[in-house]
Structures are given as C-alpha cells and as structure tokens.
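S., here's the first fold you wanted:
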Amino acid sequence: MDATRPNPDDDDTYIIEDTGESVEEIEREMNAAAQEAAAATEQPEPSAAEARPVDDETAQLRDRYLRLLADFENFRRRGEREKADFYKYALAGVLKELLPVLDNFDRSLEHAEEGDDFHKGVLLIYKQLFDVLQKHGLKPIDEVSVPFDPNIHEAVIREEDPAVPSHTVTAVLQKGYFLHDRLLRPAMVKVAVGGAEH
C-alpha cells in the first residue's frame, strides 16, 4: 500500500510512498487504535462495594434535604400563625385602656334617670362606642346565675344564700371582657355559697 505525504514543492499535491502494507492491515491498525482510545476514555463500572458508600451518601443527603424541607415548612406555618395572632390581638393594649371608660359609662347609666335626655344621650354614645369595640373582637363577660369559673371570674364578695346553688354568680360588680377568645380582664362578681352543690 502506498502512503501519502505532502509534496514539499506544492501545498495541494501529495506524494504516494509504498510501505508494503495492505489496505486490510492498515484498517486493522486503525480499528485497534480507535478501540484503545475508546477504552481509555470509558470509566469502568463501579463494583457493588464501591457503589454502596455512594448510595448511603445519597440516602443521607436525601434525608437531610427532606428534614430541612419539613423544618422550613413548619417555620413558614409558625410565622403565618404568629402574624395572624399579632393582627388579631394587636389592639389588646388600647382596648385594656378603654375598659375603665366603659366602666364609667356603665356607672353613669345606672345612676341616671331612665328616660331623660341625659340618659338617652349617654346610652347612645355608649352603644356607638361599644359597637365599634365589638366589631374589633371585644366580648363582655356579664352573665349572672352561671357557675363560678375561676378562669373568667374574680370573686370579690361571698354571700350566704341557701336558696341558690353554691358557687353561683349572683351579681356582676364589674364586667369582664374577652378579646376574641383571649381573656382581657376577668369579671368581678358576687358568689353565693351555702346552697346545694351544682
């Protein structure tokens, strides 16, 4: 077989030399060289022992990722809940300071003569103020003839009354209030004792 090499006198022409090799031999050599090059670039398949640490590491990373994702989701939910609670109870301080104003309205309405213009004017202002506060979540604790509940009542007077079941609220001396479902101030009450138990 003749091999080619560039002609030094002309860039576009080649000189053919006879090397004595057949076309089949040259093709075999080229195929062998190509196979060697391909084998050199291929990565060998990892053995089972080599693959196990990689699988373990992958499982650990996946577990850490899932835990981190769950922690983030819990953090996000907690943040949303705290934000909602903040907006829900943000007025607690202001409403607490307004409670004595409501108490004074209650006292003035008790002592004013019902039906006169002063009573009507005070009642109108009181109702207007109370409606606004109720719209923002204020709820009164003013029920009588209910069992005494130390969570929402503060007993300031005990009254012996065998006709009434023991530990019953017989009078509300000062209203208590909730802001939504949170106690803002307990009600000051008179409690009957000496009667039958509930």
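And the second, which I think is the more interesting of the pair:
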Amino acid sequence: MAQRAHDRDEVKLAFEMLVYPMLDDRTGANRHGPKHIMWTETDNQLAWQWYLNGADAKEAAPARREDLSGLPPAWIGVGTLDLFYQECLEYGRRLREAGVPVHEEIVPGAFHAFDLIADKAPISVKFFASQRDHLWAALAASTG
C-alpha cells in the first residue's frame, strides 16, 4: 500500500511499519525449506494466491519493485525463525541502497507472530516498544 500511495502522490507518507511483513510472493514457492512455526511455506503461497487473485505479482508484491527510492522511512521487525526473515533482510538492504532510512528490529529465535502469542514476554514488550518509539519519532518529525 505504501508503494501505491507513493506512486499516486496523493498522500505523503511519514513512516512505513512492517511487522514481519509478507513482501515476496516467491518465498516458499519451492516448499523444500525448513519447517516454520505459525506461518509455513504452504500458508504463504496460499495467502499470496488469495491476495493476488490474478493480479500481476510484479506490481503487487513489494519485494518485486525495482525502484524503492522515495519511499518513507521504514521499521522492519521480524524474528530469525520467521519464514519472512530473509525477505525482510533483503528488502531492508534494498531500501537502504535506495536511500530510505530503515530500522531493523531482528529478534533472535522468534517465530512468526511470537509477540501475539506471548505478548507479556520481555522480548515481545521490547518489540512493541520499538514499534511505538519509532512511530512516535516519525510522526513528530513529519509535523515539525
């Protein structure tokens, strides 16, 4: 959605918060990777099939976009055991190369949606606090 808003130039985005985001329709397509908790390769491929519903993945999947310049600063949070871990790292790298400020909140040993399952765990509280703090800072900077 952030990419579409950028392209249409109707709304100036201040921040992009990507919490273990589904960015690349190709993730899990081979279905031979390691097993994952909470979100599997099969889940991912089915979700992309539903989301795309015949649309061109090159236009709808954020990871397929060639030019990431001009997008708003991004916060990307993901656990190292999440199916999306590698695609998040790659997307963050590409954003930085395009000149977009990126904060990555990488949680060692965390699986997809860990913070929803154990929301009071210190690592989950820290994960949320990072989201909150970066969002507040981005909103303050956009109004200043």
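Why I say that: The chain is about 45% helix and 10% strand. The helical segments are 2-8, 41-52, 57-60, 85-97, 114-117, 122-143.

Talk tomorrow,
H.
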